[in-house]
Amino acid sequence: MEIQHKKIKKRVTRNELLFIAMVIPGIVFLLIFSYAPMYGLLMAFQDYIPAKGVFGSKFVGLEHFQYILKLPDIAQVTKNTLYIAIMKMIFNTVLPITFAILLNEIRVLWVKKSVQTIVYLPHFLSWVVLASVVVNLFNLDGTINQILNQFGLSSLNFLGSNQLFPNLLIGTDVWKEFGYSSIVYLAAITSIDPGLYEAATMDGATWIRKVWHVTLPGMLPFILLLTILNVPNILNAGFDQVYNLYSPIVYKSGDVLDTYIYRIGLIGRQYSLGTAVGLVKSVIGLVLIFGSNKFVEKKMNRVMF
Amino acid sequence: MQDKSIFRSTIIYIIVILLGLSCLIPMWNVVAISLSGSDAVMANKVGLFPVKFTLGAYEKIISDHQFWRSFGISVFRVVATLAINLFLIVTMAYPLSKSEKAFTTRKIFMNIMIFAILFSGGMIPTYLVVKRLGLINSIWSLILPGAVPIGSVILVMNFFRGVPKSLEEAAAMDGATPWQTLLKIYIPMSLPSLATVSLFSIVGSWNDFFGGLLYMTRTENYPLMTYIQSLTINISETLQNSTGLTAEQFQALTAVSNKNLNAAKIVVAVLPLLLIYPFMQKYFVKGIVVGSVKE
């Protein structure tokens, strides 16, 4: 008995070592490429000089953060980021839900399958590729303007107007993602108890009423969960998309935090300043993630991690 | 009643098909442009069908040295990233799928991983780390920083947890080592989840242009998406250097770019993804539903 026990114990400790050995390579990569940059955040509090490194550069405390507050663009950039990100969140929830409900009504299988194949596709394409698709459509002499002209309307400068550009970003992002985002909602619809629909039909409910009183309430937990978990993305307006579509003419309305950090920090080589802006953004993101996870844990009894 | 429901489903079919077409037509338009004569493209005459059909743009691409160089860099990057990702995903997910009893230090490693999702050093410190490692202009700068896709590790970890315990116990009875159990039981039983994370990896590294922009100072080292992106960015750099451009001047500058040649490059760049798309579709639906909503 004693020997048996020891044997098992020995095997367990041996496994422990093996398990650790297995995780270590991955952890090393994380330490180098995730944790070393976190250490590098120290440069937000320094006058970072690349030749001297984080060890040798002079500490200046909160100077950069005070400077950020005085930057003329920062308020506008933050406003742009929030507006674009929040509008994307709203429409990237509403349209996929609507689409999933409609798609669920399609009974001809080949129509359903082909539509699904097509609408999932843009999600898998790079913004580099989609940007030229968008430019083809929305340029001054692009397809949309040709159609507008045909109806006697004047051309709209979607890519060069500060009124239209943010909405172009929102619209094209929703266009790229609505199909793919609908997958989860479609799964949510199929998990609704069919008995509820039968009961509603017995009560003489119309289709619209069934959608309103059965489908939507059935999806609500998913919708809330995904929305709350999306809140931390409020400062991510989509670097790839903005970078590939914007130009100096629309910086005023289209410049977002990530593109701003890239331009002043990396292109302008103001490493410390760019890092300081990035740090503020990361900290707000961290607080929001903890907040939304606490909320989900408390109110919805789900543990995310 | 009957009429009403036919009317309703007709409307629904029309809306759904229109939404489908809204995704198809703009992309098809690029294909049509790539097959059209450049004067027809400049005059914006190309809609759904090529005007003055020509394969000229594709012939030009064949002799475009940089295009194929970048294409090769992207292929190597995708293959190497996939191999490293899969290796690290499996070697991390397997031990982490064990209970705290079997793997007492699990929590430490789990926390290291999770904190890396929650918080990051951001663009500039990451750039400086890669630079300090001497990876600027090296293909590895495009591969190593994303070596551990944490979301995928968690997805596969959850999948491993679903593998029946009895199988592993039976294997242990027969004297199988943990390595053998992993290779003979866990991996074969988790192929759908491994396919899903493979596709995420392939799509992600093929589509990324920013890594090339950040870490490559020489155009000859650009991966394909960065190269294609640089063809269009030249316009905006011209814009940046000149001040006070009107909308018309902006327009004139954009028109100078060789539209049908760029369209052809885009078509060729998307082709590899389209080829694996049917395989992708089989797995990603399952993958994201399992991955995103955990009970």
Mean residue pLDDT of chain A: 89
Average pLDDT, all residues of chain B: 85
Q: What is the ordering of alpha helices and beta strands of chain B?
A: HHHHHHHHHHHHHH
The radius of gyration computed from the alpha-carbon positions of chain A, rounded to a whole number of angstroms, is: 26 Å
Q: What portion of the residues of chain A fall into strands of 2 or more residues?
A: under 5%
Overall 3D shape of chain B: globular
Q: Helical segment tally of chain A?
A: 14
Q: What is the CATH class name of chain B?
A: Mainly Alpha
Q: How many distinct helices of chain B?
A: 14
Q: Uncertain segments of chain B of ≥5 residues (pLDDT<50)?
A: 236-243
Any idea what the CATH superfamily of the largest domain in chain A is called? MetI-like
CATH class of the largest domain in chain A reads: Mainly Alpha
**Strand line-up in the sheet with most strands of chain A:** 1-2
Structural class of chain B: mainly alpha
Number of strands of chain B: 0
C-alpha-based Rg of chain B, rounded: 25 Å
**Amino- and carboxy-terminal Cα gap of chain B:** 41 Å
The structure class of chain A reads: mainly alpha
Oligomer: heterodimer
**How many strands in all of chain A?**
2
Q: Provide the β-strand percentage band of chain B.
A: under 5%
Q: Can you describe this structure in just a few lines?
A:
Chain A is mostly helical and 305 residues long. Chain A has 14 helices and two strands.
Q: How would you sum up this structure, described in words?
A:
The complex is a heterodimer of chains A (305) and B (295). Chain A is mainly alpha-helical. Chain A has 2 domains: 46 residues, no CATH class; 237 residues, MetI-like (MetI-like fold, Orthogonal Bundle), CATH 1.10.3720. Chain A contains 14 helices and 2 strands; from the N terminus they run αβαβαααααααααααα. In chain A, strands 1-2 form a two-stranded antiparallel ribbon. In chain A, helix 3 crosses helix 14 and helix 10 crosses helix 14. Chain A starts with a helix and ends in a 5-residue tail after the last helix. Chain B is an all-alpha fold and 295 residues long. Chain B has a single domain, classed as MetI-like fold, CATH 1.10.3720.10. Chain B is built from 14 helices and no strands. About 3% of the residues of chain B have low confidence. Chain B is globular. Classes of the chains: A mainly alpha (305), B mainly alpha (295). Chains A and B meet through helix 1, helix 4, helix 5, helix 6 and helix 8 of A and helix 1, helix 4, helix 5, helix 6 and helix 10 of B.
